[in-house]
């Protein structure tokens, strides 16, 4: 074989094969520095958005600093106007009105702002063997062992009978106390370590240690619990019954950190899905005069199936579309029928240590750009919105045109697990959606 023939094959390969694994290598140092700069804003956001209420509050602050005002349904809006609406403090929508009528559809970027965690039960506080503890009910899909013996912070809201509320955030500053779920010392863990992982810690084992000192040396019972309640009352005015109308939750007390000697990665709690909600928020912030009306919707409750009035199954977004369509003399369904959406959620980057969980040809890889996932779901594409070939073509052509670093990725190997996103709930409104 002479060298000419080889180069012919090489040429043909270049023409016909999918180009894979070029990724970050084709970026300039300036482009990488720009990405690192963008991530500084992300790190700040994720540290201030550990629970959905904080994500909403932080997003509102950023939006207002960038010219967004509260939506008012008695006003008429023109191209370039920037508004936001908040739903029950847990869900936010930012809109930049486009030059075209909403009859031609809107462009959605949708992500979620809730993350797995340990929620307090309605009657959480108890004392056992001179320890004060809190009962929890985990929220979303967690690997329970990851939540033991690490510092936890308490976040949330307590609503009082008079209608007032207080926000709670304990464990995030250096001088704050933290809390923890206990684990068994290695010396006594012979039985524990021989159990399968899903039996090592049960849901009812996820009890949080919050105190050990009695109120006084009286003869009364439950003096450690009393001491805790006394502290809570003096500091926040909380009675035990106020836990009944509270949303208090435990999250890891550590903030985002650079990972690696090269500082090329970020380790943090709640990447899923703040790593998508922050860019979606920034997309709205940076949209100045879009052709189509641009909407960023950040929802709650994805981790528990999107049910409820602040989840993706809520009519919050639909109602808003009805209002802005009405205002333009357009049918809401016409606006939705012509709309397109990027549903932004995380995929799993290939990890060589757990190679058997992935299928190498259809996995996403670090440093190869944003992942476009045609379908999610599990067990034979169950529970997914499978984006159409036509929409996929439109998206890949757009990404190429705009010089975006991107790749495709399926979530793990077939029948290896999988999971859904909010894409299907948007698709059910007859909108073109891809993850
Ligand atoms: Mn997610």
In short:
The protein has 435 residues and is α/β, with parallel strands linked by helices.
Number of helices: 11
Q: Ligands in the structure? A: manganese (II) ion
Low-confidence stretches: none
Radius of gyration: 25 Å
Outline type: globular
Q: Helical amount among residues, as a percent range? A: 25-40%
What oligomeric state is this?
single chain
Provide structural commentary.
The protein has 435 residues and is α/β, with parallel strands linked by helices. Helices cover 28% and strands 22% of the residues. The chain contains eleven helices and 18 strands. It has helices at 3-16, 29-47, 52-65, 190-193, 197-200, 223-236, 271-286, 316-327, 332-337, 389-401, 423-427; strands at 69-70, 82-87, 91-96, 106-112, 117-128, 131-139, 152-159, 165-170, 180-181, 208-211, 246-252, 257-259, 265-267, 293-299, 340-343, 370-372, 406-408, 432-434. Strands 1-2-3-14-4-15-18 form a seven-stranded mixed sheet. It has a seven-stranded antiparallel sheet with strand order 8-7-11-5-6-10-9, covered by helices on one side. It has a two-stranded antiparallel ribbon with strand order 12-13. Strand 16 (370-372), helix 10 (389-401) and strand 17 (406-408) form a beta-alpha-beta unit. It is globular. 32% of the residues are buried. The mean pLDDT is 95. It binds manganese (II) ion (MN). Manganese (II) ion binds at residues 112, 272-273, 302, 345-346.
């Amino acid at each position: 074989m002479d060298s000419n023939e080889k180069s012919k094959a090489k040429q043909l390969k270049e023409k016909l094969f999918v180009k894979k694994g070029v990724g970050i290598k084709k970026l300039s140092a300036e482009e990488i520095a720009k990405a690192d700069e963008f991530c500084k804003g992300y790190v700040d956001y994720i540290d201030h958005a550990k629970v959905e209420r904080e994500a909403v509050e932080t997003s509102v602050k950023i939006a207002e600093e960038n010219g967004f005002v509260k939506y008012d349904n008695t006003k008429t809006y023109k191209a370039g106007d920037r508004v936001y609406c908040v739903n029950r403090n847990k869900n936010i929508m930012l809109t930049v009105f486009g030059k075209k009528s909403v009859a031609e559809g809107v462009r959605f970027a949708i992500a979620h702002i809730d993350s797995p965690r340990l929620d307090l039960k309605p009657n959480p506080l108890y004392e056992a063997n001179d320890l004060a503890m809190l009962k929890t009910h985990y929220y979303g899909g967690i690997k329970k062992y990851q939540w033991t013996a690490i510092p936890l912070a308490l976040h949330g809201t307590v609503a009082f009978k008079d209608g007032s509320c207080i926000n709670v955030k304990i464990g995030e500053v250096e001088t704050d106390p933290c809390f923890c779920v206990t684990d068994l010392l290695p010396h006594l863990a012979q039985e524990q370590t021989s159990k399968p992982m899903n039996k090592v810690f049960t849901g009812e084992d996820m009890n949080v240690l919050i105190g050990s000192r009695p109120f006084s040396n009286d003869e009364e019972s439950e003096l450690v619990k009393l001491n805790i309640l006394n502290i809570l009352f003096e500091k926040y005015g909380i009675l035990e019954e106020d836990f009944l109308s509270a949303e208090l939750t435990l999250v890891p007390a550590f903030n985002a950190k650079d990972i690696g000697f090269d500082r090329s990665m970020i380790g943090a709690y709640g990447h899923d899905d703040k790593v998508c909600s922050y860019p979606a928020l920034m997309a709205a912030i940076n949209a100045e005069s879009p052709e189509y009306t641009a909407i960023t919707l950040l929802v709650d409750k994805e981790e528990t199936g999107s049910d409820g009035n602040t989840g993706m199954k809520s009519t919050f977004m639909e109602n808003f579309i009805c209002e802005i369509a009405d205002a333009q003399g357009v049918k809401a369904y016409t606006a939705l029928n012509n709309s397109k959406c990027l549903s932004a959620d995380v995929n799993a980057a290939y990890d060589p240590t757990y190679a058997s969980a992935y299928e190498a040809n259809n996995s996403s890889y670090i440093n190869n750009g944003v992942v476009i996932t045609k379908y999610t779901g599990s067990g034979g594409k169950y529970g997914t919105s499978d984006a159409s070939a036509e929409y996929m073509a439109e998206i890949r052509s757009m990404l190429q045109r705009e010089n975006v670093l991107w790749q495709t990725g399926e979530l793990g190997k077939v029948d290896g697990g999988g999971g859904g996103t909010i894409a299907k709930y948007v698709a059910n409104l007859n909108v073109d959606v891809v993850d």
